[in-house]
Every structure is written in C-alpha cells, then in structure tokens.
Amino acid sequence: MEYDLELDRAVEEIKKTQAKKVVIQLPDGLKPKAGDIAKQLEKKTNAEISIWLGSCYGACDIPKVEADLLIQWGHSEWTNNI
Questions:
Q1: Is the dihedral of CA 18, 66, 71, 29 positive or negative?
Q2: What integer pLDDT is reported at residue 73 of this predicted model?
Q3: pLDDT of residue 1
Q4: Cβ within 8 Å of residue 57, ≥6 positions away
Q5: What residues contact 73, with CB distance under 8 A and at least 6 apart?
Q6: Residue 82 belongs to some domain of the structure
Q7: pLDDT for the residue numbered 24
Q8: How are strands ordered across the β-sheet holding 21-25?
C-alpha cells in the first residue's frame, strides 16, 4: 500500500517556520522509508533532518528532542478541531 506522505506540505512548513533542525517521527510501518524521506526534505529545504527511531504511538507520543520543528507521520489523518 502506498501512502501520500504530503512531502510538499512538510517542505512548505519547514520553509515557513525557517526550521534548521527538523525531527521526523514515523510509525513502524513507515520507518523503512525514513532515509528516503529525510533525503528528500534535506534536498528541498537545506534543513538538518533527524529521524526519531523510538516509539510512535500517536500524536500524543512526542519525543523530547531539541529541534526547531517536529513532523509526525501516521496512518490516520490528524485534525486540529480543538
């Protein structure tokens, strides 16, 4: 199964926030694609991309890392209707 990872949207957010250090967090099923995702983001943004290889149990599972921006991918759409 192929996922729409919305990499263009991630690139836009990195550029909009002028993030220099970005951490990407992926569920286990997407971790094999982490290197390709990081390379594409670095190429299009010049940001330093780090891959969080720890747990990813959902949007509430936020790693404690020093970064300008954290981008989480999941299998379900996240809505910000709070």
A1: positive
A2: 81
A3: 54
A4: none
A5: 5, 24, 25, 26, 27, 30
A6: no
A7: 92
A8: 48-52, 21-25, 69-72
Q: What is the residue range of 64's domain?
A: 7-72
Q: 7: Cβ–Cβ under 8 A, 6 or more apart, which residues?
A: 37, 40, 41, 44
Q: Show Cβ contacts of residue 8 under 8 Å, excluding neighbours closer than 6 positions.
A: none
Beta bridge partners of 70: 23
- pTM, rounded to two decimals: 0.79
Residue 58 tokens, joined: 């959902």
**φ, ψ dihedrals at 11, nearest 5°:** -60, -45
CATH number of residue 25's parent domain: 3.40.50.11840
Higher pLDDT: 15 or 73? It is 15
